[in-house]
UniProtKB/TrEMBL annotation:
Residues 232-257 are annotated as: Disordered. The keyword Flavoprotein does not apply. It comes from Haladaptatus paucihalophilus DX253. This is Uncharacterized protein. Keywords: Membrane, Transmembrane, Transmembrane helix. The keyword Transmembrane applies. The chain crosses the membrane at residues 21-43, 100-124, 281-311, 416-436, 442-468.
Length: 471
């Protein structure tokens, strides 16, 4: 009797095996050196990272919440539900978007930096012939196809996404990059005479194949190698997916949606705050440098980095506020996401410890308000959701059965504002003095201010913001 599982695995492994043996063909037929093989593996590393993005989105199990606050768009980690991207396909989970964004960061930063290092240190700009470029392109296409076959057959059709987590997929990508860095060192040692090419490529290909075999065994063959290597490279930490929030019986007594205009306007603040991240800081520096040297290609590159950061944070804000509605079922309140068709949380009104209408700058300009309250679940975990913004916040609070709705009017903190403004003027006096003295041009002063004063500007901006909130 034919073992269908074995045939399926062979059909999946053959494209990957062929792509990884292609460097041997390159040496025998096209005169490749070990360094040329590294170029192909660098291309493959980018391909692996690209395929890891959909893998992360479809991963059904949760990752341990360790270091999640450092992820981009980490506020989406608590979002429940997902959307199928094609008919009868598995859902792509919104809670996995932060991990997918992190993989994109890896592609843009780590992969490109390693590529630049590879080209600069090994002098590839003088070795890249047209024939080498064509053969590496052919090998890259073969690797992309092999990874695509693996994704379709094993990950989607065999539903391996139900057994993995975003963190495990990230670890697989990190292992791949670690192997590439190791191979870079090996290639630097054995790169010598033409006669050593075949031996060198044999060593590199053997190490790479061992890594691929380990990955396949751990990800798809349900095997866990033992020993030190197995413990170092294994991917643990998958947690059960979150339980679905049950809906109360009957029809809701009230359905209330946030003010969409205020939601969009409210998203500008978190959008700009995204520039305080490391990637955003680098994008601001790149854009400023392009403006100073009048290199519009550099400016375009900086704007290309800035735009997804700002738009991503604004989109994240809208996903959390703009697609939901608040339903009241008797003495219970449910936040329900209309786009995902998924309840987000459910709480009994009697379990709410405190509710209020916080004072916010955006609400003051738009004439809206939000409702904040907190409660503790059965595990004594505290939840502090924020509802809105609403145009008639007092009326909404009454319809939801919330009693404590007086706005939190904090005393004006003009002292903090004056102190922050004074620090700002003192800080600006230094670069202005340098420009006036003629020791350095205005462009150089601006660039150095952003480069060395960036963290200080972030702190100063936070102080001014707090002062404005309490003015």
């Amino acid at each position: 009797m034919i073992d269908r599982d074995a045939l399926r695995r062979v059909a999946t492994v053959i494209p990957l095996l062929g792509a990884n043996l292609f460097p041997v063909v390159g040496v025998l037929s096209f005169g490749w050196t070990p360094v040329a093989v590294l170029v192909l593996y660098w291309v493959e590393m980018g391909i692996v990272t690209c395929w890891s993005v959909p893998k992360v989105l479809f991963a059904q199990r949760r990752s341990p919440e360790v270091g999640d606050r450092h992820l981009p768009l980490s506020e989406l980690r608590e979002k429940r539900g997902g959307k199928s991207l094609w008919r009868d396909g598995p859902p792509a989970y919104v809670r996995n978007v932060p991990f997918a964004a992190a993989q994109v960061n890896v592609l843009l930063l780590v992969w490109l930096v390693l590529g630049a290092f590879l080209f600069a240190q090994l002098g590839l700009q003088n070795r890249m012939t047209s024939a080498l470029i064509r053969t590496v392109a052919v090998g890259g296409v073969g690797m992309a196809v092999g990874r695509g076959v693996e994704f379709h057959r094993e990950y989607i059709r065999e539903e391996k996404y139900a057994e993995t987590s975003p963190r495990a997929t990230q670890q697989a990508t990190a292992r791949h990059m670690a192997v590439f860095v190791l191979l870079m060192g090996v290639a630097g040692v054995i790169e010598s005479a033409r006669t050593a090419s075949l031996v060198g490529v044999g060593v590199i290909v053997a190490a790479k194949l061992a890594h691929e075999v380990h990955n396949y065994r751990t990800e798809y063959a349900d095997e866990r190698p033992g020993g030190i290597v197995g413990r170092l490279l294994d991917s643990d930490g998958n947690e059960d997916p979150p339980e679905r929030v049950s809906m109360p019986d009957g029809t809701p007594d009230e359905r209330i949606r946030p003010d969409s205009r205020a939601v969009v306007a409210d998203g500008i603040v978190p959008g700009v705050s995204g520039l305080a991240s490391r990637t955003g800081y680098l994008a601001v520096l790149l854009t400023a440098f392009g403006v100073i040297v009048l290199e519009w290609v550099v400016v375009a590159a900086g704007v290309a980095l800035l735009s997804p950061i700002v738009l991503g944070k604004m989109g994240s804000h809208y996903l959390r506020r703009g697609t939901v509605e608040y339903r009241r079922y008797g003495d219970e309140i449910v936040e329900y996401d209309r786009w995902l068709d998924e309840p987000q949380w459910r709480v009994a009104i009697d379990d709410i410890e405190e509710s209020s209408v916080p004072r916010r700058v955006v609400d003051r300009f738009l004439g809206t308000g939000t409702i904040a309250f907190d409660w503790r679940d059965a595990d004594e975990e505290r939840h502090v959701p924020s509802l809105g913004p609403f145009e008639e916040v007092t009326d909404v609070a009454e319809r939801l059965g919330l009693s404590a709705t007086d706005a939190e009017q904090k005393d004006p903190d003009r002292t903090m504002f004056v102190a922050a403004a004074g620090i700002a003027l003192t800080f600006l006096a230094v670069p202005v003095g340098v420009v006036v003295s003629g020791e350095m041009g205005a462009g150089g002063v601006v660039l150095l201010t952003l480069l060395f004063g960036g963290p200080f500007l972030v702190v100063l901006g936070a102080l001014l913001w707090v002062a404005a909130m309490n003015w």
